[in-house]
Amino acid sequence: MPVSKNIRPFHTVLVANRGEIALRVLRTVRRLGYGSVAVYSEADRSSPHVQAADRAVCIGPAAPAQSYLNIEAILAAARLAEADAVHPGYGFLSENDAFADAVDAAGLVFIGPSGENIRAMGNKAGAKRLMQAAGMPCIPGYEGEDQNDETFVREAERIGYPIMCKAAAGGGGRGMRLVLQACDLPAALASARSEARTAFGSAELILERAVVAPRHVEIQLLADSHGHVVHLGERDCSVQRRHQKVIEEAPSPAVNAVLRQRMGEAAVHSARTLGYIGAGTMEFLLDADGQFYFMEMNTRLQVEHAVTEAITGLDLVEWQLRVAAGEALPFAQEDIQLDGHAIEVRLTAEDVPAGFLPQTGPVLRWRPPVAHDVRIDSALVEGGEVSPHYDSMVAKLVAHGRDREEARRKLLSAVRHCVLLGLPSNQGFLADCLSDAVFVEGVGVHTGFVAERMGLPPSAPLPSMRTVALAALAAQVHHLPCDAQGHLQAPALAQGQAMGLLQWGEQRWHYRIRATSVPHGPDQGADHSTAWEVQCTALGSVAPASTSASTSSETFAATSLTPNTHTTTLTHVQWLDGVRSELALECQGLREQICTARTDSGVHLFHAGRAWIFECPPTHRAEGPEAGSGAVLAPLTARVLQVMVTPGQRVQAGERLLVLEAMKMEHTLTAPFTGVVRELLAQAGGQALKGALLLQIEAEAA
């Protein structure tokens, strides 16, 4: 179908986004010689993307609705900075047809498809009807205008369970629920509608038959304004949690040349039918028999575009810019060659064992891996923070190799050397996925991989006794004097000893550190160094300070150790930097290096490829409420979206109490046991800090 949009040369590009994607777009914008403009919220005033642009304009407060989603503010910034083109990045307004139309109406060039294209593909129901008309295979489902629950119940019976309930107006896993049986459908509809309304401004839903153990495979497209459309091969995005992508790779281990041609031709034909212009992605489910089904089209740059760039040698942002300026694609389909294999992981700030709960907080240490032949896209800054206002993804790591195994090996090594301290992240979980036997083999991966191989939620490994000993040492030595070479000096320890407590999850250790002077050197003579004897006693599992309600994703329960005492002797302990973050040491002949940061409440440690957060509770302190107290705490910093109970109300175990919203996701808290709500401190629309008391439930008398 014919489309219209401003397509002409331009000189200055405003990037209507933030963080790593803004930096990534700005990199190409500046390489091609265009002027660059960044926009930022008040929370992002000092962010790297602001510094990377020629000019920058503040567009409002931290809340996205008042800044990055404010169309008028962005257009005003373009006028102020004299930009004549706008790149939306991904997320925020990148798939907002009203924004594309507004940019076009303002006489600017929108570096993306037309508003008509975005509208056509922006609603899943309408997109599916268009694709079916174009001959694209689609999953059986319901995309009707009647949104009554009775209609959905009837249609679900017609389609057959299991089914997927999806937001019609958006993607990214938001507003999506898997329903296994009819009795679960009403609750799934209510939950999906609420999340869809919050994320996309529309509560419209569709139903689709759930494809059992599918792969998620997508085709990257490029189309110019001269009628040329090509595909750049496929990406496999099957490793997901909460229907959101975690690991992406290109090409797919499950796609051969014949299937690639079939999927590519279907995607190109559909894009040509739409009159599509720009970069876009057709997403498919691929079943075990090689049959593919259209899911949706993303009318923007994808998070995972870097793996396609790695195997094709093309800069997708460059071709977005060139197409928007009116250039024709200079290559035909047969010119596109795939070189080797690329894999990408998304590093996110989230508590994996707690059900992938997004986390906010300070970035105490950020040390991306070096010399690993890996591309890193990030806007993290050591000393900065991860904000509750934006997405939990903080970096992408991309490895390219001659084959899949080389790419996987490079990426695994890089992930194991990627240091983020200050708040929980999925770094260790990513390493576990990349080293899993099924992922290594490749063919057996599907969208249920995480649940099948890692568990939901994935359990966290217990720290080794060496890790505990290093944490104890790090907890005590940050302020000790050292010599000119950074070697720690023992005399500052009172009588050569220190003691304290460490806690990780529900496991607690008592430690005692004793410093002694030992000879070293060729003759073991007068030259002495300090040996640190760290004795750690596991105290077993301790009752949590309070009982939080369970969330809609399963909660974490640590496995306790059998109480025991373990002694570790550390020598040649030396600070390697002036800010005391890198510590080198020797243990039983093994020389290794750790990264650490000390806070008032604990010690953060990166050791043996993983980040650990240990609390340092006072040796003597009054304990909080015992387990079973009924104190419902906020599991993360979030906005209170909905309160379902009132003071004095009787609730059943597992009954929904509140809904929290953070980083574009909803989190439902349920009653830990049957009882009565005695105190309610939360109110809809309010903010809740992590650990804050939301309500108190009193158990019924036996």
Short description:
Helices cover 23% and strands 33% of the residues. It is α+β, with helices and mostly antiparallel strands and 702 residues long.
CATH fold topology of the largest domain? D-amino Acid Aminotransferase, Chain A, domain 1
What proportion strand? 25-35%
CATH superfamily of the largest domain: ATP-grasp fold, B domain
Largest sheet composition:
8 strands, antiparallel
Identify the strand order in the major beta sheet: 14-13-10-11-12-15-22-20
From the N-terminal CA to the C-terminal CA, the straight-line distance is 69 Å
Poorly predicted sequence stretches spanning 5 or more consecutive residues: 523-527, 543-562, 620-627
How big is the Rg? Answer: 27 Å
Strand tally is 40
Question: Approximately how much helix is present in the residues?
Answer: 10-25%
CATH class descriptor of the largest domain: Alpha Beta
- Helix/sheet category: alpha+beta
Integer average pLDDT? 89
Number of helices: 16
Shape: globular
Please tell me the total number of domains. 5
CATH architecture of the largest domain: 2-Layer Sandwich
